[in-house]
Amino acid sequence: MTTLADFIQGLPKVELHLHIEGTLEPELLFKLAERNGVTLKYDSVEALKQAYKFSNLQEFLDLYYDGAKVLLHEQDFYDLTWAYLEKCKVQNVVHTEIFFDPQTHTDRGILFATVINGINRAVQDGREKLEVSSKLILCFLRHLDETSAFETLEEALDYKDLIVGVGLDSSEKGNPPSKFERVFAKAREEGFLTVAHAGEEGPAANVKDSIDLLKVFRIDHGITSIYDDLLIAELAQKQIPLTVCPLSNLELKAVDDLKNHPLKKLMDHGVLVTINSDDPAYFGGYMNENFEASARALKLSKGDLCQLARNSVVASLLSEQEKERHFHAIEQYCRENT
Ligand code: HPA
Ligand code: ZN
């Protein structure tokens, strides 16, 4: 009998909601601070880890942006991304769609090119050396203004071949989708696909507006959709995927207990739900830990976990041929292990 942990480890998984800056483990953060001569507020890895206790999204974001200050050079972005891709390999994550936040870095005087070239070099190496494929999605910081987002989009145009889409992250409260309607329209005109964080801390209306105003093909989080029956029906009917991040929701107090997480209810309503890690270095777990914690709390069956793995392939930006290959691997694994 395989244990639940073994079953999840062996299941081929696809990750669709992952901020590369959120994979900065305290150990690497300290190493980069030393390498780059950056002074930290904490004097040890343990002291920093102690600070990772959050009561809401904003408390996390303050630490997350602070941590990113150790990233200065192309090699730093490479090392960060490479460490994450190695983790993917270990956890049998076969494909990942990675968010990066250029404004977190360009606002500190780091060149857009430094960020994207470091990340992209690791992505290429990950594909060749680890057989983990990746796509990159640029996120606009929604607490900054429209002008800054437009400037960032302009910079991204030189890297169209490396960036598949644009998204929207940071503080949801007070920064509704409508603030970025024009930027997203321009991004779509330029050929970028769109996604957006919505319904994490904000109301279900933000999910609806992301669909209607920003024309997203996927919603990141989307858990407050559970409070709107009409919206649930629309998500299910149009098969608009939700990239749900259970441990993130728990750590940021979007849910009080994983047992009360709406993931399973949304699945039962026919919504295309996926499981993801968001900012694994800050929230206590990568993909396997998110799958396992969800399975235990919500009593998910192996069949449910196989369904979640398939959903992620459906919701991904992989080609039909690549999707077929992953479906096949999941089917075979699930047939032999359930
Ligand atoms: N929500 C909003 N912004 C973010 C997140 C998140 O979960 N992670 C990194 N930036
Ligand atoms: Zn996120």
What can you see in these coordinates?
With 338 residues, the chain is of the alpha/beta class. Helices cover 52% and strands 13% of the residues. The chain contains 17 helices and eight strands. Bound molecules: hypoxanthine and zinc ion. Hypoxanthine (HPA) binds next to α4. The site of hypoxanthine has 11 residues, from α4.
Identify the notable features of this structure and list them briefly.
globular; alpha/beta; 338 residues
* Element-level helix/strand string: HEHHHHEHHEHEHEHEHEHHEHHHH
Question: Which stretches are low in confidence, meaning pLDDT under 50 for 5 or more residues running?
Answer: none
The rounded distance between the terminal residues' Cα atoms is 10 Å
Mean pLDDT: 98
How much of the sequence is in beta strands? 5-15%
Query: Can you tell me the CATH architecture?
Result: Alpha-Beta Barrel
Main sheet makeup: 8 strands, parallel
The 3D shape can be described as globular
CATH homologous superfamily, by name? Metal-dependent hydrolases
The DSSP helix count reads 17
Class by alpha and beta content: alpha/beta
Please state the CA-atom Rg, rounded to the nearest Å.
19 Å
What is the CATH third-level topology name?
TIM Barrel
What is the count of distinct domains? 1
* Percent helix: 40-55%
Number of strands: 8
Ligand inventory: hypoxanthine, zinc ion
Give, in spatial order, the strands making up the sheet with the most strands. 1-2-3-4-5-6-7-8
CATH top level? Alpha Beta
